Amino acid sequence: MTTDLHLVELTGRAREFLVLDVAENQRGYVATVAQSFADALFPPQDGWEDSETWIRGVTRGGAPAGFIMCADSPDGERDPWIWRLLVDREHQGHGVGAFAVDHAVNRYRSLGCKQVMTAWRPGPADASGFYKKLGFVETGELLEGEVVAAFKL
Question: Is residue 26 scored above 70 in pLDDT?
Answer without folding.
Answer: yes
